[in-house]
Design goal:
47% strand, 3 helices, 7% helix
Length: 278
Amino acid sequence: MKHRPTVSTSLAILLALTLSSAAQAHRPWLLPSASEVDGKEPWVTVDAAVSENLFDVDGNALKLDGLTISGPDGQPVSGANVLQGKQRNSVELKLTQPGTYKFSLVTASAMASYTLNGETKRWRGHPDELAQAIPAQAEALQVSRTHQRLETYVSANQSSTQVLKPAGSGLELLPLSHPTELLAGDASRFRVLLDGKPLANQQVAVVPGGVRHRGVLKDFAVTSDSQGEFSVKWPFAQHYWLQASYPPRAPAPAAGQPRPAPPAQRFVSVLTVEVTQP
């Protein structure tokens, strides 16, 4: 299933992650039908969407062109029955090996602004298309590239740790506690990595699903320590959305002041986990 991400996929994620973190923000997510499944060669379904209410199907489908799946032995496996809808896309996977599987959707996008013949122009698309898209006569060129990573984990019959190794590129939320064995009331450990190195003082948003029925978002934030590690104590059983963005966003400019230029590169990482009752 590994293909170059489409422009619409990248821009959908970029748009969602540049919106505010308020209760009505649009967020991209991968959501497995279950994080732990049992049986002889069981199946799992993973949905992908951008939604207003977290994990509710009330927004737009998220394309799965760039999805990769790693089996318990760390080798790539292929999903089946890719379903494309207006509000969500889905992929099914037969879990032929016991152990933990990793689902990763990694995309890239670019934004550029420049002047041409005295007029300000803007462009958005895939980074590979940037060189051909910008005219040679362009002046005052500013380019910002965004690298996004969405991940989730599923265990079949038993958990394993082979897929818990870092990719070593971009921003990662690496589980130190097993991501399919999380219990309400417990504290779980994670590490933030940037290109494989621990990232200290990084804020991570923790957002539980179920707000449509609860009426209150109940989100909170944690910050990584000097080793890039942070702890999350799960207040109740639910699916949770963890998100980190680097570098930190600049504060909004004062009235009448120009908006600062976007960073040359921005990294975003999102992790979906399921927390169950003890």
